[in-house]
Design a protein that fits this description.
Elements lengths: L2 E5 L2 E4 L4 E8 L7 E7 L6 E7 L5 E3 L7 E6 L4 E6 L8 E8 L9 E2 L3 E6 L1
Parallel strand pairs: 2-11
Antiparallel strand pairs: 1-3, 3-8, 4-5, 4-9, 5-6, 7-8, 9-10, 9-11
Length: 120
């Protein structure tokens, strides 16, 4: 059974940084992508970034490009989301998910989420 566990969320002042981790277990992820999504209170879930496990290809939402960096450590089966220059509008619960496609309904696993709160 595939499991994803996020960590690294917290409270940070605007302009600060956080690094989120998504630890994967239960299978190898060759051919899969790990996606980060976020959901703020009262808003719909939105895509943040993803990385394809085997090729290290990455993609970012316009709202985070240039501030966030996604990376993977194959040896640790872990994907990281380095978040710099954080803004209050980045406040949300951040989730990681695994899938062979970019269609959320086809993802094989979601993590439980980690809260990120950015104050001004």
């Amino acid at each position: 059974q595939v499991q994803l566990v996020e960590s690294g969320g917290g409270l940070v002042q605007a302009g600060g940084s956080l690094r989120l981790s998504c630890a994967a277990s239960g299978r190898t992820f060759t051919g899969y992508a790990i996606h980060w999504f976020r959901q703020a209170p009262g808003k719909e879930r939105e895509f943040v970034a993803n990385i394809w496990w085997s090729g290290d290809s990455t993609y970012y939402a316009d709202s985070v490009r240039g501030r966030f960096t996604i990376s993977g450590d194959n040896a640790k089966n872990t994907v990281y989301l380095q978040m710099n220059s954080l803004k209050p509008e980045d406040t949300a619960v951040y989730y990681c998910a695994a899938g062979r496609t970019v269609i959320p309904s086809n993802f094989v696993a979601w993590g439980q989420g980690t809260q990120v709160t950015v104050y001004s």
